[in-house]
């Protein structure tokens, strides 16, 4: 009797299925949220900068599926948006307004993959692959047409002076002190060959450039006695130290940097002149405690109005909850948007 | 309300009494002397004057228990984390405290892992075990080794004691086969030497292909996938001897375990590549003795343990395309406990443990850590007809050493605990209350496996408060005879119901923080857990030759993160802690073929600390059933058993992105000589 009764008991589980809403207008910018490694929760948030509204899960809303695991970079180019998803080993190519997927590039087994960073020039999108390569993607055929070995564990890339600069970190070789990760490879884009190797401090990871072709690279150091350091690379490959920072972005001739090394009691927001390397402002944003990022992940400048946008995790110790994007106009706090986990990149 | 757990468990819990009263109104009397229906009274699934519980594995068929971790999750207060498949890691957290707060003992002697701080339950097979006990807070008695008092909860695994009838040997041969290429033979042999001595040997081997199908859900997209790269093989052998010299009972055991597994890792969308493998080796030798004088008892034990793990991965991102990490740990352990009965009602015990752990590996920042641990527990127990009270004061001393750099500072703690139970009537009705203050030391992984100052980590502290009550009706003449009076003429052979309310605190919680490709570990976090455990079971004679056995458990847990009032996750339920969960089983035993059924239900929970829909994990219900039959031949007994696990083919996950197998089958034949 008991058996029959228990067998007859049926469970019904259900969710309050929130309608995922998609938004698209000229005031919207998209935020790529990295997610927590292993959680398949990379997502795209939309921020309406005019109304101050925020919208979660825009890729999911447009495509009915998730982006996957640990999205690293997002790039708007030629009406499309390219998204490098490291853990899922994919490059998603989506329509620049509808976010509908046009193509998902997956890596064949045994071939180099693990996309990290994106840059575009003359109809090509370049992507660094953590397996030691930079690949060239044709934006007409949407196929990878060439790739070049650059060294172990390349990270961010930037394009300046007709060259692609790629940081070679050797990040998986911490056991040997990142011994093969002490240079930036310069690749001539017309020949797609390595033009030179530029020696920098150990573990170069972040790279950007200004409109005049000055390149800035952050070597993360060894998370011990060598701190994260910004270096400037000029057109003739000469290198000079600018200061210490962990995150940066260029706009016009200003380099905005954030120094938030692990365990530091305060976060520095220092800007430099990209031409001279001289400090411009020792605190380029201001606001109350709630108006400043507690655990910054990214910085960018809105090209339309020069506003500074800074992404942050929820709190100093929380790397798995939804975070924020802070907006500053002329250095003053303007808005705080809710976004997904680990806002990593904004496309305007 | 979408998920109607309350209704379900009301049915589960109140079904038993309904049947009880139904039975009582029926005037047909039951003769308990019939041999066909043997009620085994040793199953103490229900806590009485302490919160401890025991599953007698002779009942594993009756409870439709199909493996070790399934047995553990039947106990009240447990939450088993299962990464899926035969080779998948399985750990147990008790009452929301986290798996590193649960100690494991094998034949009374601790099994430890100084590197990880938790033992993979997947390595234990039910075949060689006689029973499993779970102590929450205090152990059952004061006459145990100091390590028993040194953790928030403890699982004690007991192997079969030598069993002799008129013969001087006993042998078991068993083979289990199942879905996904499971083959699992087991052999054991006991031989009596002289009158009171014996030697035993047992060995088992297990292999499985894994590669089970599952449904992957990614948004609206559902795809049929195969869980590839999940083969596993393992084997274990042990040799033991039991000897008696005068007042002393001596047990010696050597043990060797080997496993080789492919690790499929968590499911990553669009990327099925995985090459990770893990080999584990474990060997130990242990000796224990117990000497009983008239009023004094002395127990001694010693153990040497060796563990090796070989992790291997292949990917282009690694230097030279491979990652090989090898970890080795050694432990020397010794314990002594003396207990003296000062009066019939009052006894005291002092237990001292010493442990030395050392660790080395080939990883670049290995500092070759060592730790000396000294534990001393002084306890007292008062017991009369109505009251049982125990109190313990545990002193813990830790001395850390490293070969490179500075050692973490040494730690010492005093940890009190008390437990009281009261039996207000002559009937088996108990009320109990207990308090325990304990901690866990950071593991070697937490202290040494990164360069971010984790050597300053403090122990993770817990406090446990418990109040509970149990009501029991027993009929077995050979057990608790004084309590059986109400059942003499009823069909109910036993009925128990128990409820516990608890309040736990975890402070200085050790939290992992990702930093690029390494981790950083800090003491950060305060968690409060309020919970309710309800358990009931009943044995019921449906006729002279048939019986029904019923068990049910329900757990409520409100386990919330109260670390930072300004954070968006303040007050959120901690990951992998369902508010509602429970299971129940029914067995119908009869002369033709016995059948048992188990239902396991787990409510909605979250995979990450933030309680948002994206982190939610759906509730699930899993059903399993067993058919079993014992055949007695002249020279041997034969046990046949078949299991259907998850027979409704439910796709679910215990750990997010580690899908569990859907329907699977298992069959075994066992010969006992």
Main beta sheet of chain B, described?
A: 22 strands, antiparallel, barrel
Q: Uncertain segments of chain A of ≥5 residues (pLDDT<50)?
A: 1-17
Number of strands of chain A: 28
The multimeric state of the shown protein is heterodimer
Ends distance of chain A: 66 Å
Shape of chain A: globular
Question: How much of the sequence of chain A is in beta strands?
Answer: over 45%
Strand content of chain B: over 45%
Radius of gyration of chain A (CA) equals 21 Å
What would you call the shape of chain B?
globular
- For the termini of chain B, the CA-CA separation is 55 Å
Q: In terms of structural class, how would the helical and strand content of chain B be classed?
A: mainly beta
Rounded mean pLDDT score of chain A: 91
Query: How does the helix and strand content of chain A classify structurally?
Result: mainly beta
Q: Tell how many strands the DSSP assignment of chain B holds.
A: 37
Biggest chain pair interface: A-B, 68 and 72 residues
Brief summary of the model shown:
The complex is a heterodimer of chains A (348) and B (673). Chain A has 348 residues and is mostly beta strands. Chain A is 4% helix and 47% strand.
Any overview of this molecule?
The complex is a heterodimer of chains A (348) and B (673). Chain A has 348 residues and is mainly β. Chain A has two helices and 28 strands. Chain A has a four-stranded antiparallel sheet with strand order 3-2-1-28. Chain A has a four-stranded antiparallel sheet with strand order 4-5-6-7. In chain A, a hairpin with a 3-residue loop joins strand 9 (124-129) and strand 10. Chain A starts with a helix and ends with a strand. Chain B has 673 residues and is mainly beta. Mean pLDDT of chain B is 87; it is low at 8-42 and 477-486. Chain B starts with a helix and ends with a strand. In chain B, a hairpin with a 4-residue loop joins strand 29 and strand 30 (594-602). Chain B has helices at residues 5-25, 68-73, 444-448; strands at residues 53-56, 78-82, 90-94, 102-106, 109-111, 129-136, 153-159, 169-178, 182-193, 197-208, 213-218, 221-226, 232-245, 248-262, 277-292, 296-314, 322-341, 346-361, 370-383, 387-401, 411-422, 428-440, 460-474, 492-507, 510-515, 518-523, 526-541, 547-561, 580-589, 594-602, 605-606, 616-617, 620-632, 637-645, 653-655, 658-659, 664-672. The interface between A and B is large, with 68 and 72 residues.
């Amino acid at each position: 009797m008991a058996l029959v009764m228990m067998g007859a008991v049926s469970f019904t589980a259900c969710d309050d299925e929130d309608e995922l809403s998609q938004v698209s207008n000229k005031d919207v910018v998209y935020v790529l949220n990295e997610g927590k490694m292993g959680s398949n929760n990379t997502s795209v948030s939309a921020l309406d900068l005019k109304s101050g509204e925020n919208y979660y899960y825009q890729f999911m809303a447009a495509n009915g599926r998730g982006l996957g695991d640990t999205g690293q970079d997002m790039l708007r180019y030629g009406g499309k948006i390219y998204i490098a998803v490291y853990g899922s080993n994919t490059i998603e190519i989506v329509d620049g307004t509808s976010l509908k997927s046009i193509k998902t590039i997956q890596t064949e087994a045994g071939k180099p993959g693990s996309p990290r960073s994106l840059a575009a020039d003359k109809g090509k999108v370049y992507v660094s692959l953590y397996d030691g390569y930079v690949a060239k993607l044709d934006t007409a055929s949407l196929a990878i047409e060439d790739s070049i070995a650059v060294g172990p564990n390349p990270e961010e890339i930037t394009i300046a002076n007709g060259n692609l600069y790629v940081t070679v970190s050797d990040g998986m070789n911490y056991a040997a002190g990142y011994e093969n990760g002490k240079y930036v490879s310069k690749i001539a884009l017309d020949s797609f060959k390595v033009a030179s190797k530029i020696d920098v401090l150990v573990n170069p990871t972040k790279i950007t450039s200004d409109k005049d072709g000055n390149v800035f690279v952050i070597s993360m150091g060894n998370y011990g006695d060598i701190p994260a350091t910004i270096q400037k690379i000029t057109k003739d490959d000469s290198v000079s130290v600018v200061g210490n920072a962990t995150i940066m972005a260029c706009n016009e001739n200003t380099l905005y940097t954030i120094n938030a090394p692990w365990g530091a009691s305060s976060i520095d927001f220092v800007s430099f002149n990209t031409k001279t390397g001289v400090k411009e402002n020792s605190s380029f944003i201001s606001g109350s405690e709630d108006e400043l990022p507690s655990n910054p992940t990214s910085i960018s400048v809105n090209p339309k109005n020069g506003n500074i946008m800074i992404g942050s995790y929820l709190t100093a110790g929380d790397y798995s909850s939804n975070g924020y994007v802070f907006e500053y106009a002329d250095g003053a706090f303007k808005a705080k948007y809710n976004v997904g986990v680990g806002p990593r990149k904004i496309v305007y | 309300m979408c998920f109607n757990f309350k209704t379900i468990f009301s049915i589960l819990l109140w079904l038993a009494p309904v049947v009880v009263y139904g039975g009582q109104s029926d005037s047909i009397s039951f003769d308990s002397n019939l041999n066909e229906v043997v009620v085994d009274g040793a199953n103490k699934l229900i806590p009485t004057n302490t919160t401890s519980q025991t599953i007698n594995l002779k009942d594993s068929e009756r409870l439709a228990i199909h493996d070790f971790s399934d047995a553990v999750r039947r106990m009240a207060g447990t939450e088993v984390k299962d990464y899926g498949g035969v080779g998948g890691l399985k750990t147990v957290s008790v009452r929301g405290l986290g798996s590193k707060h649960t100690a494991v003992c094998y034949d009374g002697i601790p099994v430890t892992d100084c590197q990880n701080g938790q033992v993979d339950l997947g390595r234990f097979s039910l075949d060689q075990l006689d029973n499993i006990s779970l102590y929450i807070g205090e152990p059952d008695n004061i006459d145990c080794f100091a390590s028993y008092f040194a953790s928030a909860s403890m699982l004690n695994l007991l192997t079969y004691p030598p069993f002799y009838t008129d013969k001087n040997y006993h042998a078991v041969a068993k083979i289990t086969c199942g879905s996904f290429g499971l083959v699992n033979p087991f052999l054991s042999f006991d031989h009596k030497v002289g009158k009171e001595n014996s030697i035993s040997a047992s060995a088992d081997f297990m292999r499985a292909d894994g590669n089970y199908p599952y449904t992957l859900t990614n948004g609206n997209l559902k795809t049929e996938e195969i869980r590839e790269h999940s083969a596993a093989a393992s084997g274990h052998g042990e040799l033991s001897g039991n000897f008696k010299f005068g007042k002393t009972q001596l047990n010696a055991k050597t043990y060797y375990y080997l496993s080789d597994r492919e690790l499929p890792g968590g499911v990553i969308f669009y990327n099925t590549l995985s090459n990770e493998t893990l080999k584990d080796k474990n060997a130990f030798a242990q000796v224990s003795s117990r000497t009983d004088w008239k009023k004094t008892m002395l127990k001694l034990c010693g153990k040497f343990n060796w563990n090796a793990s070989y992790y291997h991965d292949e990917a282009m991102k690694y230097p030279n395309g491979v990652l090989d990490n090898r970890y080795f740990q050694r432990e020397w352990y010794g314990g002594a406990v003396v207990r003296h009965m000062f009066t019939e009602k009052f006894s005291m015990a002092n237990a001292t443990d010493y442990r030395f752990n050392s660790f080395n590996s080939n990883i670049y920042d290995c500092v070759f850590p060592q730790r000396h641990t000294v534990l001393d527990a002084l306890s007292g127990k008062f017991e009369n007809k109505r009251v049982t009270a125990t109190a313990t004061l545990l002193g813990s001393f830790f001395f850390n050493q490293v070969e490179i750099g500075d050692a973490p500072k040494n730690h010492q703690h005093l940890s009190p605990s008390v437990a009281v139970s009261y039996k207000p009537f002559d009937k088996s009705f108990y009320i109990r209350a207990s308090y325990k203050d304990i901690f866990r030391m950071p593991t070697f992984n937490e202290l040494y496996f990164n360069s971010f100052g984790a050597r300053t980590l403090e122990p993770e502290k817990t406090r446990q408060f418990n109040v509970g009550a149990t009501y029991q009706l027993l009929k077995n003449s050979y057990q608790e005879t004084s309590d059986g009076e109400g059942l003499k003429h009823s069909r109910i052979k036993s009925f128990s119901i128990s409820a516990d309310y608890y309040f736990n605190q975890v402070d200085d919680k050790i939290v992992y923080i990702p930093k690029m490709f390494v981790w950083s570990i800090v003491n950060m976090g305060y968690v409060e857990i309020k919970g309710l455990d309800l358990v009931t079971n009943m044995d019921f004679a449906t006729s002279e030759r048939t019986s029904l056995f019923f068990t049910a458990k329900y757990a409520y847990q409100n386990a919330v993160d109260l670390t930072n009032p300004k954070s968006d996750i303040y007050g959120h339920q901690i990951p992998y802690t369902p508010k509602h969960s429970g299971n129940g089983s029914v067995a119908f035993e009869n002369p033709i073929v016995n059948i048992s059924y188990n239902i396991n239900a787990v409510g909605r929970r979250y995979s990450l600390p933030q309680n948002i829909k994206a982190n939610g994990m759906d509730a699930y219900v899993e059903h399993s059933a067993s058919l079993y039959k014992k055949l007695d031949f002249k020279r041997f007994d034969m046990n046949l058993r078949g299991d259907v696990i998850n027979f409704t083919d439910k796709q679910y996950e215990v750990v997010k992105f580690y899908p569990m197998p859907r329907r699977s089958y298992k069959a075994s034949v066992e010969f006992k000589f």
